[in-house]
Design brief:
69 residues; mainly alpha; 1 helix; elongated
Length: 69
């Protein structure tokens, strides 16, 4: 005789809570601006870091070539 499988009872979704008066259900305009600045800063760094590495590599290659003579 196969063992009985236990199925968990479904848990009902909690009732949505009302948003307090004067509160925003999502990001506030200040929050959106902060998020935009964060994304912009990350995008800027994604271009800046490889550029700096390329410059550093070029300077290193020139120094090695001059040292080798």
């Amino acid at each position: 005789m196969p063992a009985a499988t236990l199925k968990p009872e479904p848990v009902p979704d909690p009732a949505p809570q009302p948003v307090p008066r004067g509160a925003s259900p999502g990001l506030t305009p200040r929050g959106w601006r902060a998020a935009g600045r964060l994304v912009g800063n990350c995008a800027g760094l994604s271009f800046l870091v490889p550029g700096l590495l390329a410059v550093l590599g070029t300077i290193t290659a020139i120094a090695v070539a001059l040292a080798a003579g």
